[in-house]
Design goal:
CATH topology: NADH Oxidase
Shape: globular
Radius of gyration: 18 Å
Oligomer: single chain
CATH superfamily: NADH Oxidase
Structural class: alpha+beta
Helix content: 25-40%
CATH architecture: 3-Layer(aba) Sandwich
Largest sheet: 7 strands, antiparallel
Number of strands: 9
Distance between the termini: 43 Å
CATH class: Alpha Beta
Order of helices and strands: HHEHHEEEEEHEHHEHE
Length: 247
Amino acid sequence: MKNIDELIKNNRTSIKPNWQELRFLETPRKQGKPRPTLYKQAKEDAVIIRLINEFPNIKHKTLTECIKTRRSLRQYSNVPFTFEELSYVMWETSRIDYHTDSATFRTIPTGGATNAMETYVMINNVEGMNPGVYHYIQDKHILALIDEEDSIQDRTNKALSQQLRGAAIVLILTAVPYRSEYKYSFTAHKMIAMEAGHSGQNASLVAENLDAGAVCLAAYNQLLLDELLKIDGVDEFATYAIPMGKK
């Protein structure tokens, strides 16, 4: 029990860092260490899907309507998402609007413009697309294929602790902690968690606008989800999974 109590204490500390101490700390940035990359790119040989950024067939509810009717949805119909709807979800949750050499500005708040997050999507039921896992390339609004093995649906469901439940897509958000640690050291981790939350809220409201629903999951199998995305689980690891589908 002592170990659990210590873990709880440490985790509480991570979401209430002493920012005054940061002023006197030699962060990697102050030490002149190389700046981390702002975001990942696709591998040279990756299969690329170019998304669209105009959505003529999507009707827009008011923000007030979306907030009022948003509820976590955990079971989905077999109605597929259209390619336009998939593109719209990615556009409104994870795109980069612009960047400088040292800062990234997105549709969501990101601590100090450090952009500690990457977005992946598991395609399960989208018109014209086979099931597969893709990495979203933030600055280009494209998807890069990671895996489309026949077992991808079963593996995803297992990684989600049996919570796929017919979702059309699953957004999976990851953290690349050093992007924020480079500038903010031990204070970074609170902002990294908050960043995922910002994107999750966008995703929930976007789903509601599509007459769909979403649920933001923190309870999943960390090892299996990281393996699904083919990331190392150390310098990059999953922080949030968001199944989404039609009501």
